[in-house]
Structure prediction request, 249 residues.
Amino acid sequence: MVCKNGARSTGQNRLLALNYIHPGEDPAVCAAHAAWGEAFQARHAAHVLPEIRPAHRDMTPGRPLRVGYVTPDLFTHSVSYFAEAPLSHHNKQRVQLYVYSCVAKPDAKTARLRQQVAAVGGVWRDVARLPEQQLAQLVRQDDVDILVELTGHTANNRLGVCAMRAAPIQVTWIGYPNSTGLTSVDYRFTDAICDPHDTKQTFTEELVRLPGCFLCYTPAPDAPPVAPLPAAANGFVTFGSFNNLAKIT
Prediction:
């Protein structure tokens, strides 16, 4: 499948689909992500922001790190259930939190997350209508030390901001089970179960394996109580999945 240079969503949909068809360590899948990233960064080369030198940073020992999160999925979306814990539990003595919300249609979950960010002294910015070049400039103006993108190659991502090197350290996490393909993204948060130390899968990012599990689910506050186990009465186990059908193998 050949995608035209301007067909960004087509190329990214192809990468996403490859994860459903082939194992992640398949060399063709790894190569496709790296090739897409190389071409994407080349198209953004003219907009890469100037290198941030130490002389231009606040190097005060012990100052709070400025950590930014950028995502379009802070609404009733699967990513939001895993993003809620880090957004609401940062120690404000150690982290100054910035959230760049690219949510097109906010809902009650968006409002609750916004309140939680405010409770830890964070800054919430609604940037859904902001072009990537302006968003990259905004991240740079906020002096963010570490920018974490939570989308990968799924819908409405802002990988262009990472391609423009908005922050000195850039990370991908939670929203995509593979590499961004961008050498401008420095790290990918994972764990030793999802990405064992002997994995044959290759990434353009350096893997940072968090202890235990790389994410933490926060249940909805209005979730009903757990019902009695049907298997106890039926004598057999029933398996179910509420996923996209393409994810069931």
